[in-house]
Amino acid sequence: MSLPRPEQFSGCLIGQCLGDATGCRVEGYAPEACQNYVKYELSIKQPGERDRFPYPFGQYTDDSQLARELLQSYVTCGRFDPDDYACRIAAIFTENRIVGRGRATEKAALRLAQGVPWQDAGTPAPDAGNGSAMRAAPIGLIFCDDPQQMIQAAHDQGRITHQDVRCSAGAVAVAGAVALGLQGSSMEPKPFLSQLSQWVSEIDLTFAASIKELILWIPQPPAEAVKFVSTAGLPTDYTSDWRGISPFVVGSVLWSLYSFLKTPANYWQTICTAIAVGGDVDTTAAMAGAMSGAYLGLAAIPQELGSRLNDRGSWRYAELVELANKCYQLKNTDS
Q: CA 126, CA 117: separation in Å to the nearest integer?
């Protein structure tokens, strides 16, 4: 394949950060509250403040912080280096720079800080949260032209914190969706999901089957599709305190794929779809935003909101775009 445009690399990173920053205002909220947020605030691109989240709009969370750290590692090392990335994960937690920390990832980060090798530090199965998938989009940028290396790298970056194979499979799905989006061709759900399912099947056959089954749900409205997605991969007797999409990796990855494929030509509608059903919506919007941004490019992302991105006053919009451009230049040199 030909190398994508640089605007697709920056679109992927900014798309993820903005989806995250928009969703984290209502993370864990019930579907009704998230629907009102979308209807009365996001529809006019004026998200308000929230007491539960102590930062002004534009702050993104661990989802995007760790994706950014992965790109920084790639640019610094000139390659994907799991040893370096593991050190960065440990540092951002132990230095208390993380925002909205996930429990499984934090436990792994502390083990890394204590000297446990990255191959052994991950939280073991059956813990299958979405912490490894939420940060996997940069792998799709780095290995967009090499599916086998992409699959291995997504698996490796994932098992630094999560050893359950479903977590690695989710990381492959997110990275693969970004890689397919970079091709810039017409976004037809059936071949898109069929290819993703094939790649994911190298890690986990059951997850791969759920991705293929999602083809049947793309034509359905969100209120119907969420019934399938929110329970995909779970035992029939499973109960959860989460309403909407939980942090379980299968459902959250499937919902990000649904949100993107439902409106592939409209970044903002993709974000709204990811958020409106409630639950772990910073992560679903981050993953869907990365896919959409990679496909559509930076120009498709609302500038008036993207310009407010920051990480407690640093790593703002311009710095994020510069990092993505450095990644693109390094990839272009390697190719």
A: 20
pLDDT above 80 (res 124)? yes
Cα–Cα distance for residue pair 166/123, rounded to 1 Å: 13
With respect to residue 210, please indicate whether it lies within any of the assigned structural domains. Answer: yes
For residue 168, being part of any structural domain is answered with yes
* Residue bearing tokens 């997504």: 154
What is the CATH classification number for the domain harbouring 106? 1.10.4080.10
Domain count for the chain, please give it: 1
pTM value surpassing 0.90 = yes
The rounded distance, in Å, linking the Cα atoms of 290 and 64 is 10
Query: CA angle 319-178-66, nearest 5°?
Result: 45
Question: Residue 1 falls within a domain, yes or no?
Answer: no
Cα atoms found within 13 Å of the Cα of residue 125, Cβ hemisphere only: 6
Mind listing the pLDDT tens digit for each residue in 200-224? 999 999 999 999 999 999 999 999 9
The answer, yes or no, to whether residue 23 has pLDDT greater than 80, is: yes
* 228 is a domain residue: yes
Query: Residue 162's closest CA among 252, 292, 288?
Result: 252
